[in-house]
Specification:
It contains four helices and twelve strands. It is 27% helix and 38% strand. By secondary structure, it is of the alpha/beta class. Strand 1 (2-5) and strand 2 form a beta hairpin. It is elongated.
C-alpha cells in the first residue's frame, strides 16, 4: 500500500519509519533540554521504537510531552553546544540558574573556576560520542548525578559542601567521556 506525500508515492512502511525517526529526534531534544529524566527517556525510546502503527506512535510521543508544571519546560535556561566541534567555556560564563551543555561527537570544556554562583544552579550535561571536561574550583559546593552508559565518568571532585550556592550536575554520557576535576 502506498500513500502520497508531497506529490510522491511513498510506501506506508517508509512513512511510519520516517515519523518514528522524527519522534526519536523530538524525544532526544526534550531529553537534551532536561524535560525528561533518564527513566522517562528510556521508557519513551522503548515505546516509540516498538509502536506498530502511526496512532500508537503519536500516543507514545504525547505521553512524554513536557508537563506544564515542570519549571524547566516553562523557564528558559542557558544552552551551550559542541556538535562535531570543540568548545571551551571560561570566565563568568553561567548567566542562568539552569544550564544545558550538549556535546555530540565533539569536545567541550566547562571551566567553572571563574564562575560566581549567586544561587543554586543546575548544569545538565548530555554527551553522545564526545568528551566533556568540567573544571570545578575547590571552594564550590557540588552535587554530581551524571549517568554513564557505555561511557567513562571520572570524578575526582565528588559531592562536597563548600561556601555559597550549590552546583547540581546532572545528565547522561553515552559512548562518551565525562571528567569532573
Amino acid at each position: 500500500m502506498r500513500e502520497n506525500l508531497f506529490g510522491r508515492e511513498v510506501p506506508v512502511v517508509d512513512l511510519l519509519e520516517r515519523r518514528r525517526q522524527h519522534a526519536l529526534d523530538t524525544l532526544s531534544s526534550r531529553y537534551a533540554q532536561g524535560l525528561l529524566d533518564d527513566a522517562e527517556f528510556e521508557s519513551a525510546l522503548r515505546a516509540v521504537r516498538t509502536a506498530p502503527s502511526e496512532s500508537e506512535l503519536s500516543t507514545a510521543l504525547d505521553r512524554f510531552a513536557p508537563r506544564t508544571e515542570d519549571r524547566s519546560a516553562t523557564v528558559p535556561g542557558q544552552t551551550v553546544y559542541a556538535i562535531l566541534s570543540e568548545r571551551r567555556m571560561t570566565g563568568n560564563w553561567i548567566t542562568h540558574r539552569y544550564v544545558t551543555a550538549t556535546t555530540v561527537m565533539g569536545e567541550m570544556t566547562l571551566d567553572l573556576r571563574g564562575v560566581v554562583l549567586t544561587e543554586d544552579t543546575q548544569l545538565h550535561v548530555v554527551t553522545i560520542m564526545g568528551e566533556v571536561k568540567i573544571l570545578v574550583p575547590p571552594e564550590m559546593s557540588v552535587e554530581n548525578h551524571i549517568s554513564a552508559f557505555l561511557a567513562e565518568h571520572n570524578d575526582t571532585v565528588g559531592n562536597r559542601r563548600g561556601q555559597g550556592p550549590t552546583l547540581r550536575i546532572t545528565g547522561t554520557a553515552l559512548l562518551a567521556e565525562v571528567s569532573l576535576r
